[in-house]
Each structure stands twice: as C-alpha cells, then as structure tokens.
Structures
1.
Amino acid sequence: MAIVSADLKEYKSSNTLSDGGDITATEVVDNVDNNLFTDITGDEAVAGGTEYRKIFRKNTHGSLTWQNVVSWLVSQPTNAALSFGFAINHTDDADGAQGNMSAFGANAVVAVVSDGADTRQVTVVGEDASGNRQSENLTLNGTTEVVGALTFSKLYGASVASLSGSRSVTIRQGSGGTTRGTIGINKKISFIWYGKKYTGASLGNAEGGDMASKAAGQKNGDVAPAGNFGLWYRLTWPTNAGAVTANSTQVKSEGDTAA
C-alpha cells in the first residue's frame, strides 16, 4: 500500500521546549494551540525576540521509502516570521543559535579548517550545481585548510563527528575564501536559515532566502521506513508586535512513493 499522509508524522526533540536534541515519541499535533511555540507575553511582544524549536519528520510506513523529499515554507505567521534550517538527529545538535551560516555567492568547493590540533570528520550537506542534494565528508588537519572535491551551489549545513571542548571549525566558500559558518566549541553543527526574519521592527528574508516554493525548497533526500529528518525552526517577532489569537505557520514537506 502506498505511503499516505497518516504515515508521515512530526515529532518533538528531546530538550524540554523541543529546542534541541534527538527525536522523541511526542508527536506535534496539528491545529492545537501552543503545540510547539508557547504564547508570547506582553513584555516579550514589546521588546521583540527570537525563539528556537527543533522537530523531526518521520516516515512511519512499514516498508516503503519516502522518496525525493523537499521542504519549503507555505505560510508565515501574523506579526511574526518563521525560518527553518537543516538539523540532525543527535543529542548534541542542541543550539538553534548555530544557525550562523551565510549563503554561497557562487558555485564553489567547501574548505574547512580548525583553530588547533584537530582530526575530526566534518560532513557538509547541500546542493550541487544542478540543484541535487549531495554531501561530502572532510577530515580536519588542524590549522591546515582541507578543501573538498565536490562543487556546491548551496550549503545547508555542516556537522562534526564529535564535540570538542577547545576547538572550533570554520567553513569557507572555496579555498581561502569567505567564511560561511562556524561550528563553535562544544557545538555539533552550523547551518543556514530559510524563510523570513525580523530584525528590530524590519521584516526581511532569512540568511538563505525565503524558500517559499517547492522548486526552491530544501532537498531532504530519501527517508527510509522508520527513518526521519530534522528541521530547526526560528520564530522572530518585531518590537511592539501586535496581539494575535490562534497564530499559525506551515513548513511543507512533500515527496514521492513507489506504490
């Protein structure tokens, strides 16, 4: 039997507010108030602010793979803005502020370098020049830059195999090129945001663009039976934000099924 919508579920992450960590068995139920983000208080609305959440989308079908999955923003909330980004199913991926990447300005290879002795593996994920999802593993060589072989048009994120209490990793666009992200000390990942964001009272596109169509969407690849993929959410709201009742937003994920 083909995959149907009931086979595709969304789950919270393990941190208390679902703001980081690995997948849990707690489902995010649609059309329920405060099912993911809590109410914004009056003081918070006046000051403006940012909140992060991390969720997982899972294929619960018993035998079929959810193929060629793509995610994009369908709708934005009122008096606030949502952006989303790449996440991994790991307890150490626990800080939404690691969404510190900026977009590539042109097709390029990826270069990585640590700030000291470091031989960890870095996995970079993004799109090739034709817009297909691809990933590459690079092994750090301390403060000597390591340059990948694959050309990327977009970089969704980069993660390290393990945390370091003393080393941070810089991700560059091309050898010796512009810094596009940093995996900090005791951090697992660096990634880029797509969607909209508020800065003060000003609304604009997120760091990677608005990603408001399937054609421009983030490629999540194939999701095997019982498999999942993670997404970070960032909710921002302006200073002196107006009150809204039953606010909502939607990030859609769509793919194919073999039967």
Note: The two ends are 6 Å apart (CA to CA).
2.
Amino acid sequence: MKKRKRIGLTEKPHPSSRHIDTAAPLEIARMMNREDEKMARAVRTQLRPIARAIEFGAQALSRGGRLLYVGAGTSGRLGVLDAAECPPTFGVSPKMVQGMIAGGKKALWRSAEAAEDSLSAGARVIRRARVNGADVVCGISASGRTPFVRGALGEAKKRGAFRLLVACSPSPEIGPLADVVIQLPVGPEMIAGSTRLKAGTATKMVLNMLSTGIMIRLGKVYRNLMVGVTPSSRKLKDRAERILMALLHCPRDRARVLLRRSKNYPKAAIVMGTKGCSRKEAVRLLEEKNGFLGEIL
C-alpha cells in the first residue's frame, strides 16, 4: 500500500479563516493581527536552541568562519535580507554573512518556485561557496523539507560545517538534518500554505535574534549602541555622530572631527576621544582587544 505523504501544519486550512474571503477589510485585518500576535510566543518556545545557535555562530565567526543562509522563496529572501543588513549595521565584510536563494539573484524579485525542488542545486551552492569546517550553514525552510535546503545541509555536513535549520512545521523527521534545529510552532496559515505570512514573520524574528546575537557576541555592539555602524549615508553619519556625542559627552562638532580623523571608523573615533590617542594607536588597541570596545573604555 502506497504511503500517504504527510501534510505540514502550514499547509492545512485554518479553522478561524474559513470565511475570510467574505470578510470586511477591518475583520480581515483583525483576523490576521490576532494570528500574528501568536508568533512572538511561538518564537519564545525556541529560545534555548536559538541561544545555542548564537553561541556556536559567534565562536565560528570569531575564528574567521562565515554564516551562510540557504533557502527558497520567502525563506530565501529573508536570509538574503538579513545578510544584506549586517555590513552597514555592524561594519562587517559582506562575505561574513551571506544569503543564498534557490534560483539565484533573479529569484529575489520574481518567484522561481521550481528551483526549490532540486537537492543537487542546494548541494551545488554550498560547493560553489567553498564551505568548510569553519563555516555555519543555516537552512531556512517553512516545511523543513525543502529539497534545495536539504541538499545544501547535506553537502555542508560532508564538508564539516556547523548546520542550523529554521523550520515552521515541527516534525521529528527534520531533527537529523542539522546540529541545531529551531522548530517554530506557527500552526496553519490564514491562507492555507501561504508561508510568507505567519511563517515568514516568525522566521524574520529568529533571524533578527541570530545575526544580532552573534554580532553582539563578536563585540559589534557597545551597551545598546551600534558602534560598528558603517557611516556610508547621511543618516548613518548622523547616527555615528550621535553615538560619539553620547559616549564622549561632546558636542556634534567634536564628534564630526573625530569621525573624520578616524576615517569614518566609529570605534576608533570613540577610543581616540576617550584616550586622546592617534588613529593608529586606537586601531592597535581595538585589535588587541578583538574589537571589544568595553575592554578599552
């Protein structure tokens, strides 16, 4: 007898949205909002594996490894989005955190759904990235069973990389796929199978925690300030100046001068202003302390 394929929770119809197609706009908004409120609770159930992922991730990146997100569709786009935000926010190289999506760059703005069905394509992106034992590969899959993601995680295992998996349809079957599995109990979507909704929201929350937590552990944040920011726009220059003003208790003109003398390196500017030293000495101190500003100030 042929075994029936198991349907994930996110594919099942939600009993509360059975008549959403005839609901008024305000009721649609209320129904979706009620479900979205549950996503923080769903993430809360996974704080321990998220913490383990942060710790392992920080250890790997502190030794020169990379964090590589791999996903298809919405999951892949969320990984690319999180990776793209790391350089301007934390001042890290674009190579440190990367996003890989099934179907390549064109799939970012136009769906390429069939691309997710290939195990070999997932393995191929890992080979092309020359993943090794120093790296962390994070698979993102609402179902936890996307072939592209499974192929990538399988190849990552062969190469000795540490593997994470973020999934939104809890199942014991996906446990062996990664070293740390984050299984989010998001339940059925308001539109059955549309995982860009609650699953996407919950996944974004986890990726926020993962990348931010890793960067905090790497010393890219001081107190709750974005001291690793790359001041590459007017907004970010203003933010860097305000950080200097807050930490050095100085006027904006002084902050601006320090930032210029530091060659737009906020951490160095802060050390220069605190210690009264040159940029060269500030950089030396930061390197000596592995970038941890709190150990210098």
Note: The mean pLDDT is 95.
3.
Amino acid sequence: MDIGPYFVPFPNLREAITNHVAIKTQARSCTILPNFVGVRFMVHNGKDYVPVTVTQDMVGHKLGEFSHTKKRFTYKATKNK
C-alpha cells in the first residue's frame, strides 16, 4: 500500500503568493510541494515561529526540517587567572 505525501491544504496560499504574506503553521510534518516555491512560511518550533522561505531545493522535504527545535551548543570561554 503506497501512501502519498502528507500535506496540509492552506486556504490562504493564493493570497500569500500574490501579497507576499507569510503563512503561520504548526504542521511541521507537511511535505513541501512544487507550488509552495517562493512562499514564506512561519513554522512553529515549539517556542516561537521561525521564518522559512521555500526554494526549489526544498521540494519533497518537510517544513519542520528547516525550523530547528533545539538551540545549537556553544562552548563558553574560560578566563585564565
């Protein structure tokens, strides 16, 4: 049984394309379709919304792949006394 890509129907997609308005979504598992190219999404990462502008290379991936949920670890410099 082959299941197709999971995507959420965005009713305001046409409006977002013509008016360059960002679409707020929490659907991180939504597959990026070719007609999403050029659209700006505000993807929820668990704390706040991260801006993601869709390019041609992102087609076929999930929206959540471009909105990181964890902060990158950085080492703190120690002071030598």
Note: Strands lie at 23-25, 40-44, 49-53.
4.
Amino acid sequence: MNKATGADEAAAVTSAAVPGLGAVFAAVMLVATLLPVTRGVESPAIWVAAAFAVVTVVAFLASRHGSLDRQLAAVVACASSIVVVVLSGYALNQGIPVSIDVPGIQSSFSLVFAAFVTGGLAVGVAVADYFGIGLAGLKERTQRTTILSALGFGGLLAPQVGALVIALPVMASVGELSRVQSVVVSQLGMALGTGVLVWWYLSVTGRDLSYIDLGRPTGRNLLLIVGGVLTIFGALGAITLLFQSTGVESADHGTTQQAAENPEILLVLVPASILVIGPFEELLYRNIIQKSLYESFSRGGAILVGGVIFAIIHTQAYWTAGPGQVVASLAVIFGLALVLGTLYERTENLLVPALVHGVYNAVLFANLYFTYSA
C-alpha cells in the first residue's frame, strides 16, 4: 500500500470539500451547456448535455450535504459527467463551438469546449469522491499528474533537440538533407532525446536502470502481443464504423499529410515504428509515466490517467484540423493508450506494449505507402 492510499484510508470522514469542488466544476459545465440553449442553438446533443449537467450538480450537492449515499452520488455524478463529455465532444465535432467574447481582450473561447474540459475534471473528482479520497489526497495526485504531464511534454521537445544534435554535424558534411534523410535523423533524434530524458528523470528521482522493465518474453507474453495487436485493430475498426454511422470526422495525423507528398518517407517509418517509435514512446509513457503514477493511483487509475496524458501529448500531431476533429482523433489515441497500458500492467514487461505499438504503427504506415504510391 502506498503512502497516499494509506493516508486516504486513515481518514474516517471524507472531506466535504471534494464533492464541493465537483459541484463547482459541474456548475461551470452547466453554464457552458445552458448558454448555447438560451442562444437558440438547436442541437439535441447540447440540450441533453445540459440536462445531464443538472444531474451532475445535484449529485455532487447531495453528496456534499449528506442527503444521498456518497458512493451512489459519486456514481451518478461520474456517469452523467461522462455523458456530458461525450455529447460536448460530439457537438464540437459537428461544428457547434458557440464561442463568447472575453471582456477586455480581443479573444473568445468555446463554451462547448469549456463543458468538455470541466466535464472531464468532474469525472475525476467523482471518482475521488467514490473512493473516499480527501482533499489532501486529491492535491497529491494532481501534483504528481502535473509533474508527469510536464515530463510527457518534455517527450515532445527532447526528440527535437536530439535530432538537432545529430543533424548539425551531418549537414555540415553533406549539406541540406533530403526529406527521407530528415526523417531518418528525426527518428535517431527521438531515440537519443527520449533516452536522455528518461536517464535524467531516473537520476533526479534516485532510480537506476533497474527501474526499466525489460525481460525475456514468455509464451504468455507472445500471446498477449498477438492479442494486443488484434484488439487494437478490432477496436479501430469498431470506432471507424461508429464514427461513420454518427457523422463524426477525425483529423489526419501530420505524418499522413507529409506522406501524401513524399510516400518514400514511409519506407523509413515502417521499420522505425518497431525499432524506435514503439520502444521509446512506451519507455517514456508506460514504463516511466504510468509506473510512476502507481505511487499515487491504483493501477487502473494509473492506466486511465497515463492514457489521458498520452492522448493530450498527441494534440500537436493533429493541430492543423479543427478542435472537434482533434477531439475525435485523441479519443482514438486514448483507446490505444488503454490497451497498451493494460498490456504493460499485466506483464510488467516493456517489450510487450512496445512491440504491439510498433506493429500497429508499422501496419498503418505500410498501408499508407501502398495507398499513396499506387
């Protein structure tokens, strides 16, 4: 049992501050969904989201004042908040942002996006309330999540620095790099930069390389690798059908856009997926970030929080699309992260999610190559 969990269980009474905080998020969520309704927005998704936002507010207030069993209220608040997140995400995807101007500055923000974000926060608070996590425990978990999110964002910068370190001497000797050569350098930079970032984190946290979970794959591991790949592609097919049937549009990955102009870069990315992308992304996001989250969260909670971090980090890969399309694509990434996180948690062997991730990317890149080179 970790210290945070022990502290939570030692508390006889859960602080009313936690459902109170949830009520604040739910109130913002309610305002963000009701304002579009009062402005005449004719979207059933927004109307239903507003109704569930009301349910969320009532559930949190009932928990805070003890008029409803805490765990039952938390389940209701969590479920209704998830509905708001899904419906507001759908509304964004359908082009219903409903922006309002910010007084005093030349800017505006989307009410629907505000509902989406606060809905997600309300889900987290509801889960905390269900498990009796007090305000101190919630604060500790938030701090750890923030620190590890920053480490995740460092995983975006470090490969660029690594690529620059490699590219400068190469360009000094051969001149300007071709597109294919640039991709090779970027992949080498990812390995270098991510490796250095992981080494730095292990050093400052007093850990050594034994923290990295690498082992000889067992027969069970091999079965899980095959099962993981099949699960991911099965889920991808189901999500694609769901998106098509509901009119949801997702964004193209930045690499897809580059490959349309230069299909030959995919011949580099197919092997790089298995040798670099899969192993080093899983090293950082599963072996380091998810495993570090175990110190504050249950294993299931760490998989979920780590999945959210992994999805948010990928926003930059889709930033040229609209917010609704980005949200849809990140939902797919989040699903991928849940599968990879579960495989890592079950096996405690980095090789398993690394191979599943690598094979998944390699198949996608190979399919793109045959599509664009035809």
Note: Residues 141-373 form one domain.
